Amino acid sequence: MQLQLSFKIINTVAFLLIGFLWGLNWPAVKFILTEIPPLTMRAISFTAAACILAAVVRFLKQPLSLKKNEAIPTALIGLFLIFGFNILTTFGQMLLETSKATIIAYTMPSLTATLAAIYLGERIGLSVLAALILAMGGLIILASENFLALITNPLGPTIMMFAALSWAIGNVGLKSRTWLSKPLALTMWFFVFSSLAIWPLVFIYEPLGTQSWPNIRIIGVLIFHILGPMITCYLLWALMVSRLSVTIASISVLTAPVVGVLSSALLLGDTFTWQKLVALMAIILSISLVTFQGDEKAKRKD
Predict the structure, then answer these.
(1) Quick one: pLDDT at residue 302?
(2) How many domains does one find in the chain?
(3) pLDDT along the chain (302 residues), means of 10
(4) In a domain, 153, yes or no
(5) Model-level pTM?
């Protein structure tokens, strides 16, 4: 009983840390983009995360190599979970207010629940159905804030929806098999494959010779972005998904949209409208419904 309580406390702390760091990451990325081009920023963060995680794996004397049958699945999941999500959210933020981009991105738990039902056999109950309706309703309310601008320029919201879908696909793929590699090494390889995919794009579209060196504040925020949202959060996320169902694990992002929207308003000066508030509450409630169903299943199994 005491061990089970300790496990729940550890999970809760991990969830809160992930949500807090990923929430702060939204205004952090927006700030970094003021001086570092989008592809270059992601290439630096992916590569730095891969190198630091490799050093940690070696220090802990854990196996660094991938099993042969895990190389292709690891590459594909890394491209959805890290490369696709982060690249798309970066460009989405360049076209949208950060707070609005955050709200759209966190339709991910509902999308994950849907894909998990299709590919992992997790049953869609009334809670998940209600969550999907709430999430979509929240997006409609958010769109009503400036519906004319959305019609004339739908690219930003569309990119963010594809970012949420990429993240959901990565989550389901991560949970779809039993991994022989440890979560630390597996997370490192996600970043390795993402780095291999992005550097050619940097050389083509953002040649390093044409860029200027960023100021010290930008570098400091970039270091936070690498150590916190990239390394710490993705490692904890891989651990949570390996221990829990992919639906229940989605609770870890419950605080992220709240922190993201509020910190964007405070740090970036984003306007906090009633539409954003209602949409944010709808997204949070939809995630809560999905999580509640997962908790009920866990109790019934016990």
Answers:
(1) 47
(2) 1
(3) 59 80 93 95 97 93 87 95 96 88 81 83 73 77 72 85 93 89 92 97 93 94 95 88 70 73 86 82 74 50 48
(4) yes
(5) 0.84
**217 occurs within a structural domain:** yes
The Cα diameter of the chain in Å comes to 60
Task: From 40, 53, 20, select the one nearest 211 (Cα to Cα).
Answer: 40
pLDDT tens by residue, 84-134: 999 999 999 998 888 888 888 887 777 887 888 888 887 766 776 787 788
Can you tell me the distance from the alpha carbon of 186 to that of 175, in angstroms, rounded to the nearest whole number?
13
Q: At a CB cut-off of 8 Å and minimum separation 6, what does 177 contact?
A: 73
CA-angle at 100, arms to 174 and 250, nearest 5°: 25
Return all residues near 211 (Cβ < 8 A) that are at least 6 apart.
36, 37, 40
Stated length of the chain: 302
pLDDT at 298: 45
As to burial, measured by CB atoms within 10 angstroms (0-12 exposed, 13-18 middle, 19+ buried), residue 81 is buried
CB atoms within 10 A of CB 49: 27
Phi and psi (nearest 5°) for 158?
-65, -45
Q: Per the structure block, which two tokens stand in for 289? A: 């419904």
Domain that holds residue 88: 16-60+70-301
Helix residue spans in the chain (DSSP H): 2-32, 38-59, 71-78, 85-95, 98-105, 108-119, 126-143, 147-152, 155-175, 183-205, 216-225, 233-243, 246-249, 256-267, 274-301
For residue 252, being part of any structural domain is answered with: yes
Whole-number pLDDT of residue 138 = 79
Is 11 inside a domain boundary? Answer: no
